[in-house]
Amino acid sequence: MLLELILRLLGMLLLGIAGWKLGEYLAGNSPAEYYLRYVVVLMLAGVALGGLITPWITIKPIQFLRRKIRQLPTQELFAIMIGLIVGLIIAALLSPVLSNLPPPFGEFMPFVAAVFFAWLGMAVMIMREKDILALIGTRFSGESTAPADEKPVLLDTSVIIDGRIADITRTGFISGTILVPRFVLNELQHIADSPDALRRNRGRRGLDMLNRLKEESVVPVRITDMDVEGGHDVDDKLIMLAKNLRCPIVTNDYNLNRVAQLQGVPVLNINELANAIKSVLLPGETIEVRIIQEGKEFGQGVGYLDDGTMIVVEDGRSYLGQTIPVLVKKVLQKAEGRLVFAQPEEVAA
C-alpha cells in the first residue's frame, strides 16, 4: 500500500508538470486570463490522471507478470529464458546487416528482427523444451536424463491424510516428481488447527504423513508455490494446475476423481489401485478366515483378509473368535471395494 501511494504521488507530480507544460504550449501568446486557464486546467487534469492511472501502468502489470510466472513450471520458465536469450543473440548478430538496408528499412528492421527472433526462440523452446533440455543435460553430464514421458504427479489433501501414498512411493511405482501445492499444504494446516477434535487429528495425521513421505520416498517430493487464478476451492485449483502442468492427480476422493475425469485430467486413484491388487478369489475356493464379529443378517459372521477384503460367512456366528476354513460362494465387486460371501466348509460339505 505504501509503494502504491508513493507511485500515485509521483504519477500526479509528473503528469501535473506535463499538463502545465502542455498548457503553456497551447496558450502561446494568449492573454493572461486565457493563459492561466490553459495552465491550471491541464495541470489539474494531469494531476488527476496521474493519480488514477499510475498503478495500472506500474504495479498492476508487475503483479500480473508475477502471477503468470508463479503458475509456470520451473522447467518451462527456464526454457523460455533460454529461448529469449538465443533469439536476442541471433537478432544482435543480424543487426549490422539489417542496419545497412536502404532507408527507411535500415532504421526499424533491427528492432523488428529483435522482436521476431525473441518470439521465435521462446516458441521453439516451449514446443520442444523436453527434448532440448534432455539434450543439454546429456551433453554436459555425459549421462542420459530421465525419460521425457515421466511427468510429475500432484497430491490432494485426502490422499495425504490417508497415508497409503507413503507406502506406495517406497515401492517405486510412482516415477515422476511428487508435487504438493502450497494451497494443499495450507488446507492441511487449516484442518490441523480446527476446533473439532476429529478434523484436528486428521489434519495432524496429514502433516505427519507428509513429513514421512518426504523422508522415505524414493522420488523427489517438493512443495510448489505454483498457483492458479479463478479456482473457488482447493479441488478446482488442483484440477486447473494439473491442466497447466499436463500431469495426473493422485487422490482417493471420489468426487474429485469424477470431476477431474470429466475435464480430461488423468487421475491415479489409490482406492482403485488397492482393489486391483487384492488377491483373486473364485467361487468354490477354500480359504481360512477368522470370524471377528456378527453380521447384519441372522447367523452371519464377518471376517477380513489381510488386504482388507470383507468376508461374510453364512452360519458363521457360532464360530465367533475362531479361525476356520470357509468355502467361497459369491464375490461382489463394488465401487467401495470387494465383498465375498462364504460358508463354513464343514457346513457346505
The CATH superfamily of the largest domain bears the name 5'-nuclease
DSSP helix fraction: 55-70%
CATH architecture of the largest domain: 3-Layer(aba) Sandwich
Fraction in beta strands: 5-15%
Briefly note the structural class of the backbone.
alpha/beta
Characteristic terms for this protein:
single chain; 349 residues; alpha/beta; Rossmann fold; six-stranded mixed beta sheet; five-stranded parallel beta sheet; 14 helices; 58% helix; elongated
Question: How is the topology of this model organized?
Answer:
Blueprint: H1 2-27, H2 32-57, H3 59-71, H4 74-99, H5 105-127, H6 129-141, E1 153-155, H7 157-162, H8 164-171, E2 178-181, H9 182-192, H10 197-216, E3 221-224, H11 234-245, E4 249-251, H12 254-262, E5 267-269, H13 270-276, E6 286-290, E7 293-294, E8 301-304, E9 310-313, E10 323-334, E11 337-344, H14 345-348
Helix pairs in contact: 1-2, 4-5, 8-10, 9-10
Structural commentary:
The chain is an alpha/beta fold and 349 residues long. It folds into 4 domains: 2-57; 63-141, no CATH class; 153-275, Rossmann fold; 286-348, Nucleic acid-binding proteins (OB fold (Dihydrolipoamide Acetyltransferase, E2P), Beta Barrel), CATH 2.40.50.140. Helices cover 58% and strands 15% of the residues. The chain has 14 helices and 11 strands. The chain has helices spanning 2-27, 32-57, 59-71, 74-99, 105-127, 129-141, 157-162, 164-171, 182-192, 197-216, 234-245, 254-262, 270-276, 345-348, and strands spanning 153-155, 178-181, 221-224, 249-251, 267-269, 286-290, 293-294, 301-304, 310-313, 323-334, 337-344. It has a 6-stranded mixed beta sheet. Strand 8 and strand 9 form a beta hairpin.
